[in-house]
């Protein structure tokens, strides 16, 4: 086995089946697999098979592929029984937003009550 290309991302290696993953759904353009450090009962990553750095780059270059990513995210939610109860699709863009792999990916989260967005805030008193 040859040394991996240093410009390759972890996700490209998963797509190439060089690294094992718990694959949930695959299309000709996308791959969905369970996150190894889940942040919710369901936490699946949906990646396009073509590499774009982030969701903005993907949207500008290939809106149809972005639509495929979202459609795959919905199918994952449906497969995991989340459509009626609700689910969240998140794209982290840039290091300050928590992006650690610079190959655009959607996080599909659900299967339990999810917290709020952004900075942690306690709920205001009701009385």
UniProtKB/TrEMBL annotation:
Biological source species:
Prauserella halophila
**Entry-linked Gene3D superfamilies:** HIT-like (3.30.428.10)
Where does motif Histidine triad motif map?
A: 103-107
Full protein name: Histidine triad nucleotide-binding protein
Under the heading SUPFAM superfamilies, the entry gives:
HIT-like (SSF54197)
At the top level, the lineage of the source is: Bacteria
Domain named HIT: which ranges? Answer: 10-119
Tell me the first and last residues of the signal peptide.
Answer: none
Q: Which PROSITE patterns match?
A: HIT_2
